Amino acid sequence: MNILPLFIGIPFGVAFFIPMVSRKVKWVPDVLGNITTFTLLLLSLMTLNQEFVYHIGGWKAPIGIVFVLDGLSCLLLIIINLIGFMATLFSIDYIEKRYTSKLRYYSLFLLMIGGMNGTVLSGDLFNLFVFMEIASIASYALVGFGCEARELEASFKYLVMGNVASLFVLYGVALLYGKTGSLNIADVARIIREIPYDNLIGFASVLLIGGYMVKAALVPFHAWLPDAHPSAPAPISAMLSGVVIKALGIYVITRLIFNLFGFNSITSNLLIYIGIISMISGVCLAILQSDFKRLLAYHSISQMGYVVVGLGLGNGLGILGGIFHLFNHSLFKSLLFLDSGAIEYETGTRDLNKMGLLYKKMPVTSFSTLIGSLSISGIPPLNGFWSKLIIILAAIKAGRPIVALWAVIGSILTLSSFTKVCRYALYGKGEKFDEEKFKNYKEVGNLMIVPLIVLSILCIFTGLLLIGGENGILGPVVDVINGGVLQYINKVLEI
Amino acid sequence: MIYYLCFVIFLIGLYGVCCKKNIVKIILGLWIMEYSVNLFLILLGYRKNGIAPILREGDNIVEFAQKAVDPLPQAMVLTSIVIGLGVLALMVTVAIRLYQRYGTFDITEMRKLKG
Amino acid sequence: MNEEKGMSLIVKTVTRWLKGFIFLFGAYIVIYGHLSPGGGFPGGVVFAATFILITLAFGREYALRKMGKILASELDSLGAILFLLIALLGIYYGGTFFLNFIEKRYPTVNFKLFSAGTIPLCQISIGIKVGASLFMVFIILAVIRVVFENGKGKLITTEKKDKK
């Protein structure tokens, strides 16, 4: 089972190889980048339904670094590589028009994907930190890629907040190492269960979870997201909002809470309250926006709130709903960001007031925007409906009807803000609509349409993944999270 | 006792990041925080009257393991310093470009993104 | 003497003598990384310090002739690819990633210079990479300015009498 190191070996190798060969020839970074992400997508599809612990260098578990592949890692690998491939297809045409140096763009992009693959696979606390830093530094540089004033300001804000979060995480890792003497996640979990509870472990857990919540952009720590996501180039916004806040944020919080510290009523209440506040404040701030990408960025905060509520409910149905909403959100949010990129490529603006009647000139783009908007609002039979329904049902089943009520209110407000988007941009006219420029618009090129169509089709048919419920196709993922600390320790340390 | 002092240095750096208006002072505050975390990591591995963890020829391994200072935090700190260097280089570059665009180092002047 | 470029005559003469020794010291730290403290990262920093000293003492044009931007970039990528290649060869020869395959096949006596398998090779490649990339950061921050012509950026080397 030697595929696992290739997930980090291939992106890093090609990322350092691209600057060496592409000084004279223009099309080499495009071709290499797309072949790499396509290969990674095929490799990640080969890891379905397998559970494996890979020892690096031949050293066994508590001494050496391990890579752990289980259901949750497999799902996130598929999400990362699929959205990565779609974004590289989109950026062949997009980066050509507006930005200058393609080879640096592709190198940073592949470094980001390699770093995220490593975070998702790693089974060691410090290794997790190092890969998270690699992915974060690549994304700080990519946010400010076109060096205009606003983009640099957004990049600086994201840099400072992200770096402070990483320092908190390193402090937590240092405290855990000092208390337990080991860095392996399963080993630390085993030792924490055996020694009596100390306030130091609680402090370390607060530092770790607080640091990763900044990366996941949940509500008290969300201030970098509405500036950073709109300023990035559109494929990078799709990657950031669709993958990075999940792989670096929600995945690590899930792994730490369910497999390291143990899930009890305190963490459950924490996750549910932060989730509800994120849901409602994200949506309320989103309705007021007139910038298309800023509206989508605020909606990311709110949908992450849904995922965290689903995970915090604790029973199997809630976990299934949370994880499925994670998968769905990456699909429709990246579809919407790529759509906004196509609209910006053609019309040159992101302001909703200046757009209008785009369904006449850009039919494919407006169709996929419509599908994305219906998905995120939760209209049946698209995929957003199924995941939100399961979260609401799980809330009622766990005996917390107020949570279900807030989820329904959030969903109604989401629907209203996307009705606004469709009315201003696609089917009606904005207030400052420009008639002469409108005559020159045409549909975007073929390479940019293919990711939009593929993601729309996936949005329509992903509801079928729920066949079988908790024991069906998404069964292994729920099993990993529900199994808790003991199952993870037994799997990794082979007791 | 010395671990509390490390945390005090961390809080001084955090004060620098939160409350100062000049970009260069924010960068210095971040670097102070980084310094305090690295110091904390190294101090974790200290053993009283320990020797350096370098194995020489003809040393008894059991005695060596009982007396040596822990080398694992030293490897972690090496990696962490290099990561911090990378982030610092990126921050300084962004600060120079911001100066070329806005003409000032004051962050209260840089308010183009609103809403 | 050219008094416009670089520093005074004393600094130039001393640097001309010392630059070889500093480079040798950096190489010593890198190659003896498995036996004494040091290894790839500090050795790479000393490599970069050699070139920065040459830049400060002799002026930009002389240093850029010695190691220009393109050469530094190529060395950077080369170091990283070598490191990855050594790690992947572990899969081919041994079975796991990063396996010390040289040590498993040709075991050697400990505490000598040519021991411990792939570790000195990894240190050398990291040393090359860190040295080249730190020097490139120094060049881009201090030596080369970006000038905007027609809305796109262009990298130029600043002239001597740059008033800005």
Structure description:
Chain A is mainly alpha-helical and 495 residues long. Chain A has a domain at 264-490. Chain A has helices at 4-21, 28-45, 71-98, 102-121, 125-143, 149-180, 185-194, 199-216, 225-231, 234-261, 265-287, 292-312, 316-347, 358-361, 363-377, 383-397, 401-427, 435-438, 446-461, 475-493, and strands at 52-55, 66-69. A two-stranded antiparallel ribbon of chain A has the order 1-2. Chain A starts with a helix and ends with a helix. The mean pLDDT of chain A is 85. Chain B is mainly α. In chain B, helix 1 (2-19) runs antiparallel to helix 2 (23-44) and helix 2 packs antiparallel against helix 4 (72-102). Chain B is elongated, with a radius of gyration of 20 Å. The model of chain B has no long low-confidence stretch (mean pLDDT 86). Chain C has one domain (9-157). In chain C, 63% of the residues lie in helices and 7% in strands. Chain C contains six helices and two strands. Chain C has helices at residues 9-31, 40-58, 60-66, 69-93, 101-105, 119-143, and strands at 144-149, 152-157. In chain C, helix 2 (40-58) crosses helix 3 and helix 2 (40-58) packs parallel to helix 6 (119-143). Classes of the chains: A mainly alpha (495), B mainly alpha (115), C mainly alpha (164). Chains A and B meet through helix 5, helix 6 and helix 9 of A and helix 1, helix 2 and helix 4 of B.
Describe the structure concisely for a colleague.
The complex is a heterotrimer of chains A (495), B (115) and C (164). With 115 residues, chain B is an all-alpha fold. Chain B has 4 helices and no strands.
